[in-house]
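TA notes, week 10

Several of you asked for a full example with nothing omitted. So below is the full record: structure tokens for the whole chain, then the designed sequence directly under it. When grading your own attempts, check the secondary structure regions first.
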């Protein structure tokens, strides 16, 4: 599965952090490798349980629109938005606590 640069549309490797074509940073940068689901409820930026924020992070959506659609589905969709929210709340894992990386033991080789 390839991802595409939002800036220039060039295909990139799944784990690429920057576009090889234009150098733009890829969407949804995070501590998770591409093989691990990004569909988690983040601890930062959440309003209730972090479901909307998590979906926005995972799919590079605008969290405001995710919330608006959820509310609209709840109000006008017979509670479908609320139902979906609760389901996502149950199935989405909470973001693990990310510890700061330890100081790197790597020392650049000194020239003389
Ligand atoms: Zn690009």
């Amino acid at each position: 599965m390839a991802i595409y640069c939002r800036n220039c549309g060039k295909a990139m490797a799944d784990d690429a952090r920057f576009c090889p074509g234009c150098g733009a940073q890829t969407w949804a940068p995070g501590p998770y490798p591409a093989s691990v689901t990004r569909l988690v409820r983040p601890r930062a930026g959440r309003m209730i349980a972090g479901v909307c924020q998590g979906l926005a992070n995972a799919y590079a959506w605008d969290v405001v629109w995710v919330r608006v659609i959820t509310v609209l589905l709840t109000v006008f969709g017979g509670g479908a938005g609320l139902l979906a929210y609760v389901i996502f709340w149950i199935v989405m894992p909470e973001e693990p606590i990310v510890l700061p990386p330890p100081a790197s033991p790597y020392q650049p080789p000194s020239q003389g």
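The two ends are 46 Å apart (CA to CA). Use that as a sanity check on your answer.
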